[in-house]
Structures are given as C-alpha cells and as structure tokens.
Design brief:
23 strands, 13-stranded antiparallel beta sheet, Anthranilate synthase, ten-stranded antiparallel beta sheet, globular, alpha+beta, 30% helix
C-alpha cells in the first residue's frame, strides 16, 4: 500500500497562521476545530490548489454525483499514513453540500425562491493537507504519494518561510442585519406548522429565517472576528469562485466515519447563556429538565437511528448518550449521540446519501418536513443546514451540520437562525430563539459596522 509523506512543522494553535499563506489560492479551505474554547475539537485541516473541482451537473441526481466523487477518490488512489501517525486525512475530498442538495435525493416542491445563486455542492480533490493536532500539539504537512515531488517541495518551502504581511481589506457591514420575515408572518408560519401537526402530517418541523446585510472587504477578516467571539468544534472557511466564502461556526457534528465506526451527534434543545453564574446554571437546568426539548431531541434521535440503519450493520445502531448538555458562548444545547458500524457493502457516501440532510434541521418525518419547509420559508437555505466535510482515500469522513453559518457572496452576507416547531411551541419564544442562536454572530459583525462609521 502506498504511504503518505509527513513533514513536521512548528505547532500552531491558531490555524490562521498557516492558512493566511494559502487563503487566496484557488480552492482554499479550512476545517477548524475552534480551539481553545471548543470542547470537542482536536484537528485543524487546511488545503488549497485542488487537483480537480467537482460540482453537480444541472439534472444530476445525488446518487450519480456521489458516484463521480467515488471515481475521483479512486483516481487519486488509496494510501496509508506512516506507522504511528494518527491523522484524519490522507488526501481526498474537501467541500460542502448545500441544504438544497437534498432536492437531488428526494422529490420536493420548488416554491422557495433561489436568490443566492449558490451551487448545491462543491468539492475539491486534494493531494495534500496541513493538519494541526491540538491534543498532541503537532502541525504536519501530509502529502499523498500521487502529489509530484516538485509540488511537495514548493509547499514545504511555502510553509517553512515567514508569513507575508497583509491581512486583506478590512471587513465592514454597510448596514445592520435585516430579518427577512416580520413577526406577524413568522407567527402565521408557526400556526400553519401546528395545523399540519394537528392533522397528523408531521410531528416536528424546523423553521428558519434569514438575516442579511451588505458588506465590503475581505470575508476572511469577518471569519477571524466571528471565530474569536464564538469558537466551535466544527467551524470552517471555504473560499468560493468569484471571491465569496462560506463561514461556519457550527457546534454540531453530522456524521463521522472512522475505521468503519459511525457516529452522529444531533443537537435539539436550546437555552441562552445567563448574565451571571447563577442565571447560567439555572438556564442549563431548565434545559436539562425541559420535557418539550427532551421530546424533540428523542424524536430526532429516532429519525437518525433509522437513517443510519440504512447503511449500518443490522443490530449495530446504538444510542450511547442521550440528553447531554453542551455549552457555547451564547447558548446551552441538548445533545445526543447515535452510533453504528458501517455495513460491509456500504461506504461513507452511501451513509451520507441515506441521511442527508440531517434530521435535526428538518423535522420528522423528514421528507414531509422538508416539503413544509419549502412551502413556508420564502427563500432557499443555501449552505445553511447543509454540511462541510472531508472524505479521504481510506474512507475516513467527518461532517458538520452547517448551522451558525454565513454566506458572503456578491456583496451580501447572509446568516440563518431557526428551531424545531412542535405542537406546544409558542411562536414568540421560537422567534426569539431563532435570533438568540445567531445573536453573537450578528452582533460581532455589526460592532465592526459601527466602528467603520466612526
């Protein structure tokens, strides 16, 4: 079996130190563990200059596109890491699936307006990566054996020399964020969802609203500010053709595959952080004791057990963690874990195809919930509730649910917030929750907007 070459570099806790050198290169991508405040992150992974870029063809199904991704991985060739080196990526695919990639998997209506012009998916095939392991405190360049020696030498020299000066154009909003849905219309949508629930159409629907503002400057500067305000373990920055970018500060894992073992960690249940220790502890206990939030969480756990069961060995799906508390700078979350073992005749792409988009951001039953989302949300979600992910030549994969995520494109930055609606949801509380979840992101960028005007 061919073996990757691994070159050690000085350890950097901040991925910006190394990413700064490639962030303006074609296909620059950073998957960011959000250290030091994030509790579950271990690895930062960055790369650029992909060997190929892959996007779905206009009428291509999800299964057909995933077939092309398999072919690209096969063309790069399987490779192993040297003995004693434990890293998550040995060359392969890095990219995103938009929420609307789900239209290529399931038959859905076409009512929500597509005003973002973002492709349903974009992946690069990468033969190298720079990976920082925050547990072992190492930073290492990993070269797939298919990468030419001259390119290996160029990259090694690039990362060994001091970084160049210059951080790009300062980022600033041109005006504060504006919500796309006024409260009366939000209330009407919640009432409509609850009518569907009462008639037996569904049990839960995730409903979201979009916030937008004009901007100028470099989105990378915005990402740096957001990361400082809200570090999370499944963050990421993906440069887009034409100068735009995806900026994700997600706390939620979608699906991880490692050594054939599968894990998903759905989030369902949210309370804001308190203004002091006493209020914060009280809010956490309210969440842990909430019958409504626990019922919502359990509903999604059951959905995901079914989704994983399509590609996992019969009898292997388990729920080792239920209703655990995870806390972030702006909110407390209720999180569960579902695990399984990949079936012998399935791979990570089969698993992804059977489970995308994640049940925690659609509702239950999934397809009916997605139909209702398309009916009631005025615009398509784009990257929101999609996924940032890697899939390497060994079959190792990790993916996020792209909540707390923003799209900077064509001078407009978009951000989304939402929540699961059930029979006893109060629209006022749900409306506030949709803002609370992203308030730290909006406020951080709006603060820069105010400073820019002074």
């Amino acid at each position: 079996m061919p073996t990757c070459l691994v070159h050690p570099l000085p350890y950097q806790a901040d991925p910006a130190v190394y990413f700064q050198r490639v962030r303006q290169a074609p296909g620059a991508v950073l998957l960011d563990a959000g250290r030091p405040a994030a509790t579950r992150g271990r690895y930062d992974l960055l790369s650029a200059w992909p060997l190929a870029a892959l996007a779905p063809l206009p009428e291509e199904t999800g299964a057909a596109f995933f077939g092309r991704l398999r072919e690209q991985l096969s063309s790069l060739g399987r490779a192993e890491l040297p003995a004693g080196i434990d890293l998550p990526f040995a060359g392969g695919l890095l990219g995103y699936l938009a929420y609307d990639f789900g239209r290529r998997i399931e038959v859905l209506p076409d009512q929500a307006r597509d005003d973002l012009g973002l492709g349903d998916a974009l992946f690069g095939l990468y033969a190298w990566a720079l990976i920082s392991d925050h547990q072992a405190r190492t930073s290492q360049l990993v070269f797939h054996p298919g990468l030419p020696g001259a390119e290996q030498a160029r990259l090694l020299a690039l990362f060994e020399r001091p970084p160049a000066d210059g951080d790009g154009a300062p980022f600033a909003l041109l005006a504060p964020f504006q919500a796309a849905i006024e409260p009366p219309r939000y209330a009407e949508a919640i009432a409509r969802i609850q009518a569907y629930i009462a008639s037996g159409d569904c049990y839960q629907v995730n409903y979201a609203q979009r916030f937008q503002a004009g901007y100028q400057g470099d989105p990378w500067q915005a990402y740096g500010a957001l990361r400082g305000a809200c570090p999370t373990p499944f963050s990421g920055y993906l440069s887009l053709p034409g100068g735009g970018a995806l900026l994700s500060l997600s706390p939620e894992r979608f699906i991880r595959v490692s050594g054939g073992q599968v894990e998903t960690r759905p989030i369902k249940g949210t309370q804001p952080r308190g203004r002091d220790e006493q209020e914060d502890a009280h809010n956490a206990q309210v969440l842990l004791a909430s019958t409504k939030d626990r019922a919502e969480n359990l509903m999604i756990v059951d959905l995901l057990r079914n989704d994983l069961g399509r590609s996992c060995r019969i009898g292997s799906v388990r729920v080792p963690e239920l209703f655990a508390l995870e806390s972030y700078p702006n909110v407390h979350h209720l999180v569960s874990a579902v695990t399984g073992e990949l079936a012998a005749d399935k791979d990570a792409l089969d698993l992804l195809l059977g489970a995308f988009p994640g049940g925690s951001i659609t509702g239950a039953p999934k397809i009916r919930a997605m139909q209702i989302i398309d009916e009631l949300e005025p615009t398509r979600r784009g990257p929101y509730c999609g996924s940032l992910l890697y899939l390497d030549v060994r079959g190792e994969m990790d993916s996020s649910i792209a909540i707390r995520s923003l799209l900077a494109k064509d001078g407009v930055i978009s951000c989304w917030g939402g929540g699961g609606i059930v029979a006893d949801s109060a629209w006022q509380a749900e409306y506030q929750e949709s803002i609370t979840k992203v308030q730290v992101l909006l406020s951080t960028l709006e603060q820069g907007c105010l400073q820019a005007k002074l």
